[in-house]
Design goal:
Layout lengths: L1 H8 L5 H8 L15 E7 L8 E8 L5 E8 L1
Antiparallel strand pairs: 1-2, 2-3
Length: about 70
Amino acid sequence: MVSDVVTRTLPGKTKLKIEQLLGPSLETSYFKSERMDLIYFLGPEQGLFSVDSEWLLIWLDAGGRFKGAAVKRD
């Protein structure tokens, strides 16, 4: 589901539109070194042994539009 949102829904969207669709980005110190623009908690990692959490990180281009995204584990 996340990959569908990232590939079909978010491209071309502004930060405002992304936040209207996904809700406000979280304020967290996780992944500070990634320098992402928006971050969303997805839940426990998928798999047999769920030890970590999964997060959706989103980057915007200089014009404030969707540039890319990644799912990361903490």
